[in-house]
From TrEMBL:
Pfam families, alphabetized: WD40, zf-CCCH_4
Zinc finger intervals, C3H1-type: 78-105
Top-level lineage group: Eukaryota
Domain C3H1-type span(s) in chain numbering: 78-105
WD repeat ranges, renumbered to this chain: 116-148
Keywords on record: Metal-binding, WD repeat, Zinc, Zinc-finger
UniProt-listed InterPro entries: WD40/YVTN_repeat-like_dom_sf, WD40_repeat_dom_sf, WD40_rpt, WDR86-like, Znf-CCCH_4, Znf_CCCH, Znf_CCCH_sf
PANTHER family in the cross-refs: PTHR44489, ZINC FINGER CCCH DOMAIN-CONTAINING PROTEIN 59-RELATED
Signal peptide location: none
GO molecular function, one term: zinc ion binding
Listed name of the protein: C3H1-type domain-containing protein
Record-linked SMART domains: WD40, ZnF_C3H1
Length: 347
């Protein structure tokens, strides 16, 4: 007699549980004592825990879940549109038969140039100081790394002593937002100073018209005005209104736009605009499903999609035409490039 019962998560169990790691594309064991939904009873007959297991059918599934939902994760996407975590770590045992995606991107005009490893935790900011051939990244692991834009490897590292919540570059200045302080370095004259913050971790920053804006953990936006290259900026205003951390700041048309964890913007972790090699405007949108969507403006036609092992926390566009960067929650810095010949080069 076939024994069936429902587990604590409401899933129908037929001779045992469906492997949750297989559902997420991360199972590296085959055969395994938990059921892989694509396997037939004969492929499981040698497994003591599944001597009578068989592939669940639509008639035996709970009414609240369709048969195809077994191939979906918590994000609601089908298997073919979700990154195989086993492949990403070099351990997928299913090869060409794997139902999950074995590529870092989707789109004909998009290519991955490099993945730069070094940070041990999520990347919180990417900056290009003017007059430098170096790329600066700040991470939750408490370090700022400096990368050579020509060769790729990390050329230097600064241990700032605590979590980096944000990092930007403006002119020759690099600003790193930490808990209750902003550290600033001038890469040309060596000047450095600290700006004291009493609002917690600095999650976002923006600079415009000699003003530095900082979005903080408690929802405050602090404003400093710069006076000289040798003296620290002076705090001139505190903007209040958000009830939780300010995670994004954008300046446009003489206005400051802020996004917060108080659900002002839902599901979007980072936004960035750029142009492809043909000069078409593209919106990069990092979402909380571990993907980056690329939309052509103003039509919002999807031009491509980037897949990551962890959520992409920061986006940055390089001065070089067609080049951009993504930094994810695992600490990986990825370099991307639009294919084709730049129209700017032909002018």
């Amino acid at each position: 007699m076939m024994l069936t019962h429902r587990g604590r998560h409401g899933r129908l169990e037929i001779g045992g549980k469906v492997c949750s790691y297989w559902l997420a594309g991360r199972c590296t064991r085959n055969p395994y004592r938990f059921l892989h939904a694509e396997e037939s009873p004969s492929s499981q007959q040698n497994n003591a825990c599944h001597r009578e297991a068989k592939k669940p059918s639509a008639s035996t599934l709970p009414k609240s879940r369709g048969a195809c939902e077994l191939l979906k994760g918590k994000d609601g996407f089908k298997a073919e549109d979700r990154l195989c975590q086993g492949w990403a770590s070099g351990a997928c045992v299913n090869g060409d038969k794997c139902r999950f995606r074995h590529s870092w991107s989707r789109g004909e005009d998009l290519g991955l140039l490099a993945k730069l490893e070094g940070h041990e935790k999520g990347i919180a900011g990417i900056g290009f100081p003017s007059g430098s051939d170096k790329l600066y990244t700040g991470s939750k692991d408490g370090t700022v790394r400096i990368w050579d834009c020509h060769t790729g490897p990390c050329s230097d590292m600064v241990n700032v002593g605590s979590e980096v919540g944000s990092l930007i570059a403006e002119g020759p200045w690099v600003f790193a937002g930490l808990p209750n302080v902003i550290k600033a370095w001038n890469i040309q004259n060596g000047a450095a100073f600290d700006l004291q913050v009493l609002s917690g971790l600095v999650y976002s920053m923006a600079v415009d018209n000699n003003l530095l804006f900082a979005g903080c953990e408690n929802g405050d936006i602090l404003v400093w005005r710069g006076t000289s290259l040798t003296r620290p900026p002076q705090l001139v205003a505190t903007l209040r209104g958000h009830t939780r951390a300010v995670v994004s700041l954008v300046i446009g048309a003489n206005r400051l736009y802020s996004g917060s964890a108080d659900h002002t913007i839902r599901g979007v972790l980072a936004l960035k605009g750029m142009h492809d090699m043909e000069g078409k405007p593209i919106l990069l949108c990092a979402c909380n499903d571990d993907t980056v969507h690329l939309y052509e403006l103003p039509t919002f036609v999807e031009r491509g999609k980037i897949y990551s092992r962890r959520e992409v926390l920061v986006l940055q566009v390089a001065p070089t035409h067609g080049l951009f960067f993504t930094g994810d929650g695992a600490g990986t810095l990825s370099v991307w490039k639009w294919s084709g010949e730049s129209k700017q080069a032909l002018l």
